[in-house]
Amino acid sequence: MTNKAQGTAYGAWLLLAISIIALILAAVATFNEGNGIAYTPGTYLVLISTALMLVGSLLLTFARGMPRWLGGLIAFLLLLDLLGTGLAAYLLQAEWLLVSIGIGLVAWLVHAIADPATGKRDRTMTLRQEAAS
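Structure (tokenized):
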């Protein structure tokens, strides 16, 4: 008898939306020749890291039944991705991308603090029920 987590994962949905926006902004920064940073290795790195951020946020949003350790690992890797992409956006002077990554960090905090945890246990669950789940 497993107890499914109830509620909507607002932080994960916001992180998914920000990941899509950041990927679009990274693609514009990579391929727009008028910005001065187009076709540089740094923009390709940011493009790849935002694509990985999108994959991670898709997993957090739609794979809500995954084990707790896997969700924690993906959330931690997303935090590292957000921090690294934010640093790269700062060094590339891509302001709009940096703003979207900052909003993504807020969304990550909402996910880590306020979103319902997967695999949440009921206090009335007995040890035998917990071992069976």
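The chain has a mean pLDDT of 86. The first helix runs from residue 10 to 31.
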